[in-house]
UniProtKB/TrEMBL annotation:
It comes from Duganella levis. Residues 71-290 form the Dienelactone hydrolase domain. This is Carboxymethylenebutenolidase. Coiled coil: none annotated. PANTHER family: ALPHA_BETA-HYDROLASES SUPERFAMILY PROTEIN, CARBOXYMETHYLENEBUTENOLIDASE-RELATED. It comes from the Bacteria. InterPro entries: AB_hydrolase_fold, Dienelactn_hydro, Dienelactone_hydrolase-like, TAT_signal.
Length: 294
């Protein structure tokens, strides 16, 4: 057992499984159902719905350092030794879209795990204002806390049907940034796919580093999927990130979609671009396969 796994497993004081609710029934009922309040109204005509036929899907709860952390889990029913993918949410938390992405991976043979990484700070699915969400929850969720939770999720996966040598990570927006950073934090990750995650920013105690700061030493190959029309992530920052990555030992790369802005994969939002979302999904599966995850 490597040191990272040992340290993470020491955080798992108890684990309880329940499909649909956590062990107390109140902490996080029906994780992964409904859409976040800040994203309403939903573009229902575009929403992709992935069923659970052939899957085991629902909420598990990991107790990490005394905190119950709900995780949406989806996997092929009755299978073990599965490739693992960590699915990291946007700022809106683990709502229906993120759960559906997990089920999509499960249909491809993965043990997909989407943890509620904001559980200590609040419930982002219930906050109607993005400004309030950023101020009251996102800004107060330290990267170090996120990494500790993800370490524990990885440790759980390794002893609950996941293949310890085949672990990947993908994330959207806030989760895209975390994808880059966690790939640097945990070099045992085989590959990552970052969907329009911020690359640069101001540093503080909660966010001491950003993807640009780890690019030169990153060893995990990360595929960045970004939109040329994204007003929040400049093309200049991507150019700088590419140059920093080129100085390091990894094989990370970017795909830039000229017709997309931010959140082009989010099929429940007006920003959705179906052709690019489908292309990105295909590239994600191919990237993981190319890098030995499956």
């Amino acid at each position: 057992m490597d040191d990272l796994t040992r340290d993470a497993e020491s955080l798992l004081t108890k684990t309880n499984l329940s499909d649909g609710v956590d062990r107390r029934g109140f902490l996080k009922t029906a994780l992964g159902t409904g859409f976040a309040a800040a994203t309403l109204p939903v573009m229902a005509q575009n929403v992709v719905k992935t069923d659970t036929v052939g899957l085991t899907a629902g909420t598990i709860v990991l107790n990490i350092g005394g905190q119950d952390v709900p995780v949406y889990r989806a996997q092929p029913e009755g299978k073990t030794n599965l490739p693992v993918v960590l699915v990291i949410s946007e700022i809106f938390g683990v709502h229906e879209h993120i759960a559906d992405v997990a089920r999509r991976f499960a249909k491809q043979g993965y043990l997909a795990l989407a943890p509620d990484l904001f559980i200590r700070q609040g419930d982002p699915t219930k906050v109607a204002s993005i400004a309030d969400l950023q101020r009251d929850i996102i800004s107060k969720t330290p990267d170090a806390q996120v990494f500790t939770d993800l370490d524990a999720v990885v440790a759980w996966a390794k002893v609950n049907g996941g293949n310890a040598d085949k672990i990947a990570i993908t994330g959207f927006c806030w989760g895209g940034r975390i994808t880059w950073l966690y790939a640097a934090h945990n070099p045992s990750i085989k590959a990552g796919v970052a969907w329009y995650g911020r690359l640069m920013g101001d540093s503080n105690a909660n966010f001491p580093r950003h993807p640009i700061d780890v690019a030169g030493t990153l060893t995990v190959p990360v595929l960045g999927l970004y939109g040329a029309k994204d007003t929040g992530i400049s093309q200049e920052s991507i150019v700088v990130m590419k140059a920093a990555l080129a100085k390091g030992p990894n094989k990370s790369t970017f795909i830039i979609y000229p017709n997309s802005g931010h959140a082009f994969h989010a099929d429940y939002r007006p920003s959705y671009v179906e052709a690019d979302a489908k292309d990105g999904w295909g590239r994600t599966l191919a990237w993981f396969k190319q890098n030995g995850v499956i």
